[in-house]
Automatic annotation (TrEMBL):
UniProt source species: Veronia nyctiphanis
Keyword terms: Viral release from host cell
The keyword Magnesium is assigned to this record: no
Protein name: Oxidoreductase
InterPro entries: P-loop_NTPase, Terminase_6C
Database matches in Pfam families: Terminase_6C, Terminase_6N
Keyword Ribonucleoprotein appears in the UniProt entry: no
Domain Terminase large subunit gp17-like C-terminal: 211-368
Length: 389
């Protein structure tokens, strides 16, 4: 059986391919059961257990406690594999051996070297687990010719590259957003969003969408997101598409946005015009006159972050569970002070070379259309926040 963050299901009307059987039977006679990550339902079968992207699974230890029972017989094995998330994730103690040590006498506790140097070739550790770290550069060195490392370093900023491709964990202790609240926003969009057909010419029919755009800077990607706003007050925003475009001139960036207006009923476009973004804004405004320009200031940046924080903490945002890069972008944003030290603001861990959480800012540009609201402490509705500080 195979427990994944999202089901591997393909809709016949989207792909023209139908996968038959429950379970799916492979050519060698093996049966594959794809299960969800809900600890209340991920059980009852028996066999080899594979859990994918386990560093991004919500309440991993609860899931493992029940799912591991399916491979309890000695002829079965458990396999866990994932890109890293954060040091504070529920699965990290399972990885570094601290979960093994809990409740054991001092003489029974183990120390496990989880450095890349120790685990590059893989080894069986003192807790009985076989561990291995394989980075993209390890794969290239071993003869894999599928990657262009220089291009990957252009497509991902330094922190994203290290996390997604070099197996380094993010320390989210200083982040304004936490991984646990972001995980609560990550859903299996292919099964949960039954009105969204991403491979068709009109993925959301005629329902309105908002577009947020963060233009390219130096070596940053230009990032664009398409958001479906809620149909009722207090409903959920859904991030339908995300795009990262590299090395495109103003015309090409504007044309990519224009192509989205042909697919969707676009009601709102917001573009950061602080710097070179103004050129893209002027071109987009020619075919979408209502385009909103966002000019960054301390007040504007605080408003964007606080709005996103509010939506995420109240689970009013959803995006696909496979979009680890979206979650990582939010995790890089932290609270800081202005140069004068007189005001609090927010920024991402960035330089011109490393990027600045492009996807998160693009999404926040789109979300900025809804007024900043806060939940009344009495539970009796909401009120508009007139002052941030």
């Amino acid at each position: 059986m195979y427990i994944d963050e999202y089901f591997w299901i393909y809709r016949f009307q989207d792909t023209g391919v139908e996968l038959r059987g429950d379970p799916i039977t492979l050519w060698n006679g093996a049966n594959l059961y794809f299960l969800g990550t809900n600890s209340r339902t991920a059980q009852s079968y028996h066999g080899n257990l594979y859990i994918d992207e386990y560093f991004w699974i919500y309440r991993f230890q609860e899931l493992r406690k029940v799912a591991s029972g399916m491979a309890m017989h000695k002829q079965w094995k458990q396999t866990y594999f994932s890109t890293p998330s954060t040091l504070n994730h529920d699965a990290y103690p399972f990885w570094d051996g601290q979960l093994f040590n809990r409740g054991r006498k001092k003489a029974q506790k183990v120390e496990i070297d989880i450095s890349h140097q120790a685990l590059a070739v893989g080894q069986t550790c003192d807790d009985g687990q076989w561990r291995q770290i394989v980075t993209v550069e390890d794969a290239v060195a071993a003869g894999c010719d599928l990657f262009d490392l220089e291009q990957l370093k252009l497509e991902y900023n330094e922190q994203e590259y290290n996390n997604l491709l070099m197996c380094q964990f993010v320390d989210d202790a200083a982040s304004i957003f936490t991984l646990s609240e972001l995980q609560a926003c990550m859903v299996d969009s292919w099964t949960v969003w039954d009105d969204f057909y991403p491979l068709t010419s009109k993925p959301l029919s005629n329902r309105p969408v908002w577009i947020g755009y963060d233009p390219s800077r130096t070596r940053d990607d230009a990032s664009c997101v398409v958001v479906s706003p809620p149909m009722v007050s207090g409903g959920k925003f859904r991030v339908l598409e995300k795009h990262s475009w590299n090395n495109l001139d103003f015309d090409s960036q504007a044309n990519r946005i224009k192509s989205l207006t042909r697919q969707y009923n676009v009601q709102h476009i917001a573009i950061d015009t602080s710097g070179i973004g103004y050129g893209v804004y002027e071109l987009v405004r020619k075919f979408f006159p209502a385009t909103t320009k966002i000019t960054y200031s301390v007040e504007v940046k605080n408003r964007l972050v606080l709005k996103a924080k509010q939506l995420i903490s109240h689970r009013r945002l959803e995006f696909d569970s496979g979009w680890n890069d979206m979650a990582l972008a939010f995790l890089t944003i932290h609270k800081t002070s202005t140069t004068s030290g007189k005001q609090v603001t927010y920024q991402a861990s960035r330089t011109n070379e490393t990027g600045h959480a492009d996807l998160a800012w693009a999404l926040m540009h789109a979300l900025d259309r809804e007024p900043l609201m806060s939940i009344d402490e009495s539970g009796g509705g909401s009120r508009t926040v007139m002052e941030i500080f």
